[in-house]
Design goal:
Layout lengths: L1 H28 L7 H19 L5 E4 L8 E4 L4 H9 L10 E3 L9 E3 L3 H11 L18 H16 L1 H10 L5 H10 L15 H37 L1
Antiparallel strand pairs: 1-2, 3-4
Length: 241
């Protein structure tokens, strides 16, 4: 009796572990899951680099000095503290995160992208054609930031607040290094949470490729199940004989 109970206990533990692994996989595949710290840092630095790249093209010169008799110094705008302050806070760089949407058809961190997702585009087209589409929220709220984007927006502010000195250090002394590497890889993220940084969008071909891969996997699974059923039938017929 003791052996039977122990065996059932072990089987139960194995099932619990397997269910836990499966549940974790489902969460990781959910496009509406909360953004990881890696994803937040990735898009924060993407937006900050974009602002700095834009202002770095200017040849404007600003003058410093406040006294009437004080000789004013001229300095290139792209080498000033003002440029960094404006890039971070005018308006705050994290407000750019609210321009992102969740593209459920894309994998990993690529699910966050600007522009309307294919799913939403399809639904909008159906509405335009007179089809009654119910999403559980008013139509005028369809384009509002999702919960995932709102959470990334919040976490973005937290990173800027916690690592403002590191950003300033990069700006003044390490602009020869990539900002994402300097901040995300070397400062913010653990080594086991940097995978999203290498994910790059390769256009619509990537979606088509992923769909073909899924379709092929389903066909192979269907064929395996069909063959298994066929063999089982043959086995049953032989046993009856």
């Amino acid at each position: 009796m003791h052996c039977v109970v122990e065996a059932w206990f072990r089987i139960s533990m194995i099932l619990v572990i397997m269910c836990g692994i499966h549940a974790e996989e489902l969460v990781q595949d959910d496009p509406h899951r909360d953004p990881s710290l890696c994803e937040v840092c990735k898009y924060l630095t993407t937006e900050l680099k974009g602002r700095l790249d834009e202002t770095g093209k200017t040849h404007d010169v600003i003058e410093t000095g406040y006294g009437l008799d004080q000789k004013k110094k001229k300095k290139e705008y792209k080498k000033t503290e003002l440029r960094l302050i404006e890039a971070l806070n005018d308006p705050h760089v994290c407000e750019k995160i609210l321009e992102y949407n969740i593209h459920a058809e894309r994998k990993g961190s690529l699910r966050f992208a600007k522009g309307r997702s294919q799913t939403m585009e399809t639904l909008k087209n159906l509405v335009d054609k007179g089809v009654n589409v119910e999403l559980g929220i008013p139509y005028d709220l369809w384009d509002q930031p999702s919960a995932g984007v709102t959470e990334m927006h919040r976490k973005c502010f937290k990173i800027v607040e916690d690592y403002e000195e590191a950003i300033e250090e990069w700006y003044w002394n390490h602009q020869d290094k990539d900002l994402t590497t300097y901040l995300c890889v070397n400062q913010v993220l653990r080594k086991d949470d940097q995978e999203c940084l290498s994910e790059t969008w390769k256009g619509e071909k990537e979606i088509v490729k992923e769909r073909k891969k899924i379709s092929k996997s389903k066909k192979e699974k269907h064929n395996r199940n069909g063959n298994t059923g066929h063999h089982d039938n043959e086995k049953g017929e032989k046993e009856e004989l």
